[in-house]
C-alpha cells in the first residue's frame, strides 16, 4: 500500500489549551518564539510530528487563536486534512471559536474532532453543560456530528484516546493528490547558517524531490531544492499532505515572503481577477457593498482587492452561494476549486469565504446573462470545461489547457480521450467538430475558387491559410489540410491546393475558340506571331488572357519563350529533337540557327528556354547538352 501523508490542525479560542494539547500528543512545544513564551500565546504557526507507521504519517499544526493573529491561523488551516477544535471546559464556546468554525467551513474542512480541554478544572456536571453548549453552537456546522473527547493535557487524561481517534479517522480518509504538479504555499521563510534560504509549508499537492528545479510564483524566480526536511529529518522527497522545509539555492531570503508559492509546473495560473462562489457568515453585521475593499486569504497569501457583484449592489445576509468576482491589487497563484477567506480590512472581521470557479476571470456586464454564464462555469463537468476551452481557443497545448480549464493534470488526462479530442503535432489538442468545420470551410472555399477560376490548378496554400488564420491557429489549419490530403479530400501540387477530384479546364463557352487558337499556333510552326495576336484573332477577351495563358502553359500545350512569343508544345518538342539529332555533345548558336532555320529574335529565347529547362548549359559561346 502506498504511504499516505496528512496534516491536522488545532483550532480554537486563545488560551483554550491548543498548544498544551499538541505538546501532550507529540512531546513537542510548538511555542518556539521568545515573545510566545513571555506572553503565553501562539503568534506563529507551530508544527510537530504526531504519528508515523508504514501506512500513514501525521503532522500537527497549532494555529494561533488570538484575534490579532487570525491571518496566521488561516494560513495554517488552509493546508490541513482534519481539525481538532479545542474548547476549554471552564469557558465553553468563545468568539474566536465561532470565527474559527466559520473559517473551517469556508475552507472546506469536513473532518473534525471536538476536544473539551482542561477537564480537571471543572466537575462532571459542568462538563455536561459545556457539552450541551458546544452541541448547540455546532448545529449546522461541519462539526455537528463530530465526536467529543474529554482531555486534560497536564494529567494526560484522554490523550491516548484522542490520538487513536485521529489515527483511525485519517486511516479511513483519502489523502491529497500526490500525482499532480507539486505546489507548496510558503508560510515561513528563514535562513540556516551555512545552508542559506529555507522555506516551509504544507505540500498542497504533488511531490518534490532533492535536486528538482522549481519556481517561486508569482514572481517567477527559478530555484533548486537543495535539501528537504520533514520535521527536522532529512528526506529525499516530500509528498502532498506533509509539512516540509526545503533549502533552496538560487534565491535570497530577502527576495521571498509568506504567501508566495513553490511549484514544479507552469500549469498554475497567476492572476488578479478571480470568478468565485462566495458564502457570507451568518452574523454579518455590516453591509457588503459593490466594489468594497476586501482582504483575500488564499493559501498562505494575503492580498487586498475589491468584490464585484453582477446581480446586486450590496448584501447583508444570504444563505446561498453568491457568484461574483474578486479584483486584486496583486497577483496570486491559484486554480479552480481552491478555497479562500474574505475579511473586512477595517474593522478586521471575517466576511465570508468560498471557492475559485475560474482563475482567469474576464470583465463582464452587470446582469442576469453574466450570472447565467458563471452558473455554467460553476457547474461545468471536466468534459464541458475542456470543450468550452477548446471551442474558445480552437487548439491548446496541455499546459495551456490545464490553465484554462483549472483542472489538474491527472484529471485532465483522464478526460482527453480519442473520442472527445484530437491530439496532433505531438503537442496540441483540438476537437473533432472543429476539424470537421475547418475541413468543410476549406472544401467550400476550394469549390468556389474552382468555379470562378476553372483554369487554375488551385489556390496558393499560403493565401488559403491566411484567409482562415483570423479564426483558427495556423498549426491547426496545417494539420487539417494535411489530414485532408491524406484522406484524399484535397490534393497539392507544388504550393497549390485543390479538391482531390478537380481537373483544371477551359470553360465550355471558350473551349472551341481556344482549340482554334492552338491549331493556328501549331500551324505557324517555329515562326509564330505575338501570342496576343492569337488571343485577339480568336476573340478571347483580355480578362481571360492571363488565366488561359497560365493554363495552356501548365498543361504543356504551349511553351512561353518570353513575354511576347510562345510555341505550341508539339512544335517545341519536335524542334528540340531535331536540334539534338543534328548536333554533337555541344553546339554554337550559328549551328542551331542553321538547323532550325530561325532568326535571332526566335533563336535566342528558344535557347534560353532550353537552359531554363535544364536541357542545355551555356559555356561561353557554346551550349552543352545535359
From TrEMBL:
Record-annotated Tr-type G domain positions: 3-174
Function: Translation factor necessary for the incorporation of selenocysteine into proteins. It probably replaces EF-Tu for the insertion of selenocysteine directed by the UGA codon. SelB binds GTP and GDP.
Keywords: Cytoplasm, Elongation factor, GTP-binding, Nucleotide-binding, Protein biosynthesis
Subcellular localization(s) per the UniProt record: Cytoplasm
InterPro entries xref list: Beta-barrel_SelB (IPR057335), EF-Tu_GTPase (IPR050055), EFTu-like_2 (IPR004161), Elong_fac_SelB-wing-hlx_typ-2 (IPR015190), P-loop_NTPase (IPR027417), SelB_WHD4 (IPR015191), Small_GTP-bd (IPR005225), T_Tr_GTP-bd_dom (IPR000795)
Species: Neobacillus ginsengisoli
Descriptive protein name: Selenocysteine-specific elongation factor
Keyword GTP-binding part of the UniProt annotation: yes
MF (Gene Ontology): translation elongation factor activity
Alphabetical list of NCBIfam families matching this protein: selB, small_GTP
PROSITE patterns noted in UniProt: G_TR_2
